[in-house]
Amino acid sequence: MAALRQSGTGDLAPPAWASRPTNLAKAVTAELVQRIVHRQYAPGSALPPEPALCQAFSVSRTVVREAVKSLQEKGLVQIRQGTGTTVLPSASWNMLDELVLGASIDEDEDLTVLDDLVVTRRLLESDMANVAARVADQEVLDRLCELVDQMDRLVDDTASYHEHDREFHDTVMRASGNRIARAVVRSLQSQAVNTARYVGRTERTLCVASNRGHRRVYERLAARDPDGAAEAMFTHITEAWIVRRSGRGTDRLAR
Predict the structure, then answer these.
(1) Distance of CA 155 to the CA centre of its chain
(2) Dihedral angle sign, alpha carbons of residues 95, 97, 99, 105
(3) Residue 103 lies inside a defined structural domain of this protein
(4) Per residue in 64-74, is it b (16+ CB within 10 Å) or e — as a string?
């Protein structure tokens, strides 16, 4: 992502692109998302006018208009004929949008966004575990058992362990049949999974503890215990995040 810069005179600075992007509209959109999320353009302020953006990015009015329209679709700005384009507060942003969520996570020094992500994930996955305990077939249960056993053997190989970890959760979600909830979780995870603050610590002892949580979830699913499966998933996701969070406060998880 291009680095954010602002000229000494306060004028609109050009992007720090290493080379001119192939898709200019997408590149301009991504840069403006970063600037809005990082509050270079504060909520309630006017986005720079078309001519200024065209000059700064060295692009046509068509490219700028396409980029600004995309910002509006993401909930970042409001376009009004005759009055220009206004930056909207974060409450209006589409946090499931890839660019918005990614930029917000980058800016998330106090882990507020990641806390909210985990809270959302555990609510959805707990509900899906509840359903999976009632509808999962034996093939799914066998695969979950196999994954848990494999993860026990992979605690010294954290990269492989986390691949199996993601497959375990996705198998439970697919078994629930709730495609919308699964899509939301996968969208959230896709932006956070490569973030060091989300991944946190990954040493062997933590993988061992994490897999105990997976095994409890599997056991409740295999026992056809919907409430137990939901509780086990809720506890597993909460405890795993508290550990990864490295003790930087956990009040926001108590919801």
Answers:
(1) 25
(2) positive
(3) no
(4) bebbbebbeeb
- 219 Cβ contact list (under 8 Å, min separation 6): 232
**What was the pLDDT predicted at 249?**
47
**pLDDT attached to residue 253:** 55
The domain of 44 spans 24-89
Residues with Cβ within 8 Å of 142's Cβ and at least 6 positions away in sequence, in order, are none
> Comparing C-alpha atoms, which of 254, 237, 16 is closest to residue 121?
237
- Examine the pLDDT at 200 and tell me if it is beyond 70: no
Instruction: Look at the chain and report how many structural domains it folds into.
Output: 2
Least confident of 10-14, 58-62, 124-128: 10-14
Q: Given this model, what pLDDT does residue 11 score?
A: 55
Q: How far apart are CA 247 and CA 255, in angstroms?
A: 18
Q: 161 — phi, psi (to 5°)?
A: -55, -50
Cα–Cα distance, 67 to 85 (Å, whole number): 12
Based on the domain organization, do 82 and 195 belong to the same domain? no
Helix runs in 74-203, H state only: 98-106, 112-135, 138-153, 158-176, 179-192, 196-199
Q: Does residue 16 carry a pLDDT above 80?
A: no
Rg, the chain, Cα only: 22
Confidence of residue 8 (pLDDT cuts 50, 70, 90): very low
Please enumerate, as own/partner, the contacts of 37-42 that have beta carbons within 8 Å and a separation of 24 or more: 37/93, 37/100, 37/103, 37/104, 37/106, 37/107, 38/4, 38/103, 38/107, 40/4, 40/6, 41/87, 42/87
Closest CA to 87 of 33, 51, 50: 33
